[in-house]
Amino acid sequence: MKSVNTELGATSELFMLLASIAYVVALIFFVLDLVKSSRTIGAVEARLAAGQAQAPARATVLAGARGGGASAPASAGPAMADTSMQYSAGPRRSSARIAVALTVVATVIHAAAVLTRGIAADRVPWGNMYEFCTTGALVVSLIFLITLTRKDLRFVGSFVVGLVVIMLCAATVGFATPVANLIPALQSYWLIVHVSIAVASSALFTLTFAMSVLQLVQSSREARIAAGGPDKAGFMRLVPPALSLENLSYRLNAIAFVGWTFTLIAGAIWAEEAWGRYWGWDTKEVWTFVIWTVYAGYLHARATKGWTGTRAAWLSIVGYLCIVFNFTIVNIYFSGLHSYSGV
Amino acid sequence: MQKSEPHEKQVTLNKDTARTEGIKPDAALPALGFTGTLRWAWKQLTSMRIALFLLLLLAVAAVPGSLFPQRSANPAVVTTYLQDHPDSGPILDWFQLFDVYSSVWFSSIYLLLFISLIGCVTPRAIAHARAVRAKPPATPRRLSRMPVYGTLEIPAARTSGAAITPASAATDAAALLKKRGYRVDVRDVDGDRPSVAAERGFSKELGNLVFHSSLIGVLVSVAVGGLFGYNGQKVIVEGDTFVNTLVGYDAFTPGTNFSDDQLEPYSIRLDAFDVQFDRAQESHYGQPLDFTASLTTQDGPDAEPKKQILKVNAPIDIGGTSVYLVGNGYAPVITVRDGEGNIAVQGPVVTIPSDGLYTSLAVIKAPDARPEQLGFVGFFLPTAFVDEQGVSFSRDPDPFNPQLNLNSYAGDLGLDGGEPKNVYVLDTENLTELNSRNSDNGGIVLGLGETYDLPEGKGSITFDGLKRYIAVDIHHDPAQLGALVFSVLALAGLSASLFIGRRRVWVRTGEHPDGRVLIEYGLLARGEDPRLPAEGAAVEKLLAGHWLAHQDKAGENQLQPAGAPAAGTGAGTDGDNGKDNE
């Protein structure tokens, strides 16, 4: 058993602090972007309305997303966000560019913090709640940035970076644990397999949670505008229509659900190896099962009449709340075999 | 079950009728009759909405099991809970909230869910078996209506040179699509407008069926394990041997169909148990780093002894069972002499650690002591220190200053009635206290090798030595492999059903009077498929590459953009190709 490098551990904590600060600044710019862009669009709209009454209607069609049957609801108002979430040649969003650049910087520092933590402990950096949380936040940030290279998801930036900041705060304030060796129960290669996939799936679920919340806000805004009401949430013009959000979060949830299924199976195999039974309704197992079932319900809801759209989004949100509950309340307050929080 | 999208006729037919018929009878209830009612109930149960409802209900029903202590996990905690909550406890018990996962209500939910699942999978499997054998569906009259549509044309100069006709183009397209994994069917080869119908992605539905069937397999495996498996617990002190017989176990939980002859008479001796604690790091000083049990095992009475190492996360397999290291602690070796000077108890006493510093609860019973039975209860401290209040506590998990702190009692231990008693609990109700911290005699404090003489000449107790013990779980689950195989199948099926796209491609060819061969194609996905346009582009590239790749003048390739959204562009783009050939 190698001894841990506490000095490097301290460096890691410094990196984590720097990353948090960078994320907070990025968050400010993301919010600034929402406010500014919303105002710009408002001004453009006012000019358009004054200048030409017959602006060319931009028909947006969802290629293959919904088959022929259901038609996409007309996008509410002149939305800036494309339904396909591709980068479009709209007005320059300098704040958003700064925000993304800052997020990249923060992610690099964050990665250095996680990496040094792992090197300091001479093992994978997900052996306790602090490490799970910080590594999970890194994966959220990485997936977000990777998706950004293909789709214009900057509208969800303030939400995602906000969640990353919350995760880092929770880790450093709530679950702070100095770098240490693993207790015998965790000394298994299944820690690498089982927990890494759990982190990745949770990160994806974090993204879809953000999108589902936006979907609910957007769909109620769309309904209000369709009914001739005023557009109270102007900044939501940056966000794609609810249906696009729903479709993308469904695809991400599908991937995350497969990951969660794998987490469950790998966990069962590890449980068999460590405790002699693959399933024993330990509190953590119960909640992993509950989460699995809720997301299974979500996937089915998407194929059930009357359950698509808003109800499916609520299931996705409930599923994520279960994940948060499973990670915080169950880890800390429920007695069980998974008591490795280190808190 | 995850059903296909509602607009797909073939598969959702059952579901749709189930749904509508399930609602309609409200108006004409009396006409149903007995079989009608059964039919109605069955259709309800296998409907998607009920399946979804049961699924969510199952999630909710699983929650109480994490809120209340469960007998299956720890019966002692449930007993304590019932004692602490005499009013609410029995009510909760009546609702089976201490046995959630074997309760009537939890079982009914998952059984109904699985019946619903079977009722849904079976017709779908039959429908799928038919679909696999059926030919791809007829080529639609207007391919431009497809969500992904495109055209391309082979110039006359090229068609004459390579002798390309509409018929040969269709067969070529069929061959290309077949290579790409499509099942193909060429129609009207001899007609003016030959066409190819192609379909792929049958493994999507197959994956879906495999996933759901595998869940049934997992459930059956769990049930079989419960019927034919068994598990038991045993504490083994250093130097002691466990023999795999019923009497050898401290606790034993047989499956419903268990019989004694299932136990193979292997033996395990604990030679040594080594524990390593973290000494390098201040913040985690004394945290365990390694537990290693050195064993000598024998497969049977006459078998060759084998040296084996048992560790956490590394069980050993022996005699059809797996042996797991789940706990450890200290077993002080003591000698109790009675009032007559005879040895009443001698040997290691297993103590129960209550914290990370191995502050351990010790209970010693001496039923053979005369004239009165003797009992001791107290703590074992591996590294004893005394704080300012005079209370002893342990400062380290390693035995640097091992000490026993005991109270002693004399009288009737209550063991003679024949009732089973917990060896780790001393019932002091019928006993007279001899020693305690609060009595005049004080408590017993014993260092290693020391002897304490009990007051009133009732006997003595000696702390002779110290051993460690391990607690092992021994499991036999014949269906474990089955559960693993079905789980992996379920994962594979799930991935296939979520990530494979079921797509149809139609290609229609025709010849222009000026010698050009015109080709149009359309793609349709079954269900949601965001990658359909990409597949359209790939198909176009495939076809264009075959017929036009070696063209010198790139300008002559009049390739229409593929993957154009149908609803927006379809009406405009199909004109040229269609008109010329009608």
Automatic annotation (TrEMBL), chain A:
<feature type="transmembrane region" description="Helical">
    <location>
        <begin position="126"/>
        <end position="148"/>
    </location>
</feature>
<feature type="transmembrane region" description="Helical">
    <location>
        <begin position="189"/>
        <end position="214"/>
    </location>
</feature>
<feature type="transmembrane region" description="Helical">
    <location>
        <begin position="313"/>
        <end position="334"/>
    </location>
</feature>
<dbReference type="Pfam" id="PF01578">
    <property type="entry name" value="Cytochrom_C_asm"/>
</dbReference>
<dbReference type="InterPro" id="IPR045062">
    <property type="entry name" value="Cyt_c_biogenesis_CcsA/CcmC"/>
</dbReference>
<feature type="transmembrane region" description="Helical">
    <location>
        <begin position="14"/>
        <end position="32"/>
    </location>
</feature>
<feature type="transmembrane region" description="Helical">
    <location>
        <begin position="286"/>
        <end position="301"/>
    </location>
</feature>
<dbReference type="InterPro" id="IPR002541">
    <property type="entry name" value="Cyt_c_assembly"/>
</dbReference>
<dbReference type="GO" id="GO:0020037">
    <property type="term" value="F:heme binding"/>
</dbReference>
<dbReference type="InterPro" id="IPR017562">
    <property type="entry name" value="Cyt_c_biogenesis_CcsA"/>
</dbReference>
<keyword id="KW-0812">Transmembrane</keyword>
<protein>
    <submittedName>
        <fullName>C-type cytochrome biogenesis protein CcsB</fullName>
    </submittedName>
</protein>
<dbReference type="GO" id="GO:0017004">
    <property type="term" value="P:cytochrome complex assembly"/>
</dbReference>
<feature type="transmembrane region" description="Helical">
    <location>
        <begin position="155"/>
        <end position="177"/>
    </location>
</feature>
<keyword id="KW-0472">Membrane</keyword>
<feature type="transmembrane region" description="Helical">
    <location>
        <begin position="252"/>
        <end position="271"/>
    </location>
</feature>
<keyword id="KW-0201">Cytochrome c-type biogenesis</keyword>
<feature type="transmembrane region" description="Helical">
    <location>
        <begin position="98"/>
        <end position="120"/>
    </location>
</feature>
<dbReference type="GO" id="GO:0005886">
    <property type="term" value="C:plasma membrane"/>
</dbReference>
<feature type="domain" description="Cytochrome c assembly protein">
    <location>
        <begin position="126"/>
        <end position="338"/>
    </location>
</feature>
<keyword id="KW-1133">Transmembrane helix</keyword>
From TrEMBL, chain B:
<keyword id="KW-0812">Transmembrane</keyword>
<dbReference type="Pfam" id="PF05140">
    <property type="entry name" value="ResB"/>
</dbReference>
<protein>
    <submittedName>
        <fullName>Cytochrome c biogenesis protein ResB</fullName>
    </submittedName>
</protein>
<keyword id="KW-1133">Transmembrane helix</keyword>
<dbReference type="InterPro" id="IPR023494">
    <property type="entry name" value="Cyt_c_bgen_Ccs1/CcsB/ResB"/>
</dbReference>
<feature type="transmembrane region" description="Helical">
    <location>
        <begin position="104"/>
        <end position="126"/>
    </location>
</feature>
<dbReference type="GO" id="GO:0017004">
    <property type="term" value="P:cytochrome complex assembly"/>
</dbReference>
<feature type="transmembrane region" description="Helical">
    <location>
        <begin position="50"/>
        <end position="68"/>
    </location>
</feature>
<dbReference type="InterPro" id="IPR007816">
    <property type="entry name" value="ResB-like_domain"/>
</dbReference>
<keyword id="KW-0201">Cytochrome c-type biogenesis</keyword>
<dbReference type="GO" id="GO:0016020">
    <property type="term" value="C:membrane"/>
</dbReference>
<feature type="transmembrane region" description="Helical">
    <location>
        <begin position="481"/>
        <end position="500"/>
    </location>
</feature>
<keyword id="KW-0472">Membrane</keyword>
<feature type="transmembrane region" description="Helical">
    <location>
        <begin position="209"/>
        <end position="230"/>
    </location>
</feature>
<feature type="domain" description="ResB-like">
    <location>
        <begin position="48"/>
        <end position="534"/>
    </location>
</feature>
<feature type="region of interest" description="Disordered">
    <location>
        <begin position="554"/>
        <end position="582"/>
    </location>
</feature>
